[in-house]
Design goal:
- It contains 3 helices and 8 strands, in the order E-E-E-E-H-H-E-E-E-E-H.
- With 147 residues, the chain is an alpha+beta fold.
- The strands form 2 sheets. Strands 4-8-7-6-5 form a 5-stranded mixed sheet. A 3-stranded antiparallel sheet has the order 1-2-3, with no helix packed on it.
- Strand 5 and strand 6 form a beta hairpin.
- The protein is globular, with a radius of gyration of 21 Å.
- 17% of the residues are buried.
Length: 147
């Protein structure tokens, strides 16, 4: 140990960690792990009128169905995510898939824009296939973003 100090320092790819004598680790700086998914900010699509329909939809869900928000956090923390949580819908559009305890299925349509996940639309599925109207709405909002 250099300089007679009882502290050991270790440089890890996840950041520099100082080890205290009592084996208590204190993170002093953070650098991302190479090759690991990174947390990406999540925002909600805002219409020209300033409303965030997706956020309002989430808030209106019954307490038992708020698992949708947890799946959004999972996707945000591990992006890019594959099946079964997230499925590509083509042209930069993704679908977060959530099976609810009420035996219903929720979907959130999102895209990546300027290094952010943007939640475009959310709905409860009524049929096996994604409804054309919901897909069209998500694509319309995605196009509005890109302008």
């Amino acid at each position: 140990m250099a300089g007679g100090s009882r502290r050991e320092q270790a440089n890890l790819s996840a950041g520099r960690i100082q080890f205290e004598p009592a084996n208590r680790a204190v993170k002093t700086e953070s650098t991302p792990l190479e090759g690991w998914p990174q947390k990406i900010p999540l925002i909600f699509f805002r219409s020209g009128k300033g409303t965030e329909a997706m956020r309002e939809w989430l808030r209106e869900l019954p307490e038992a169905e708020r698992r949708v928000g947890k799946d959004l956090l999972r996707a945000q923390g591990r992006w890019p995510v594959g099946m079964p949580l997230c499925r590509p819908m083509g042209n930069g559009l993704w679908e977060i898939r959530t099976d609810l305890p009420t035996k219903r299925t929720a979907r959130v349509m999102l895209c990546v824009y300027r290094e952010h996940l943007v939640a475009l639309d959310g709905f409860i599925k009524k049929t096996r296939a994604t409804q054309d109207s919901e897909l069209a709405l998500a694509r319309k909002r995605q196009k509005e973003l890109m302008r």
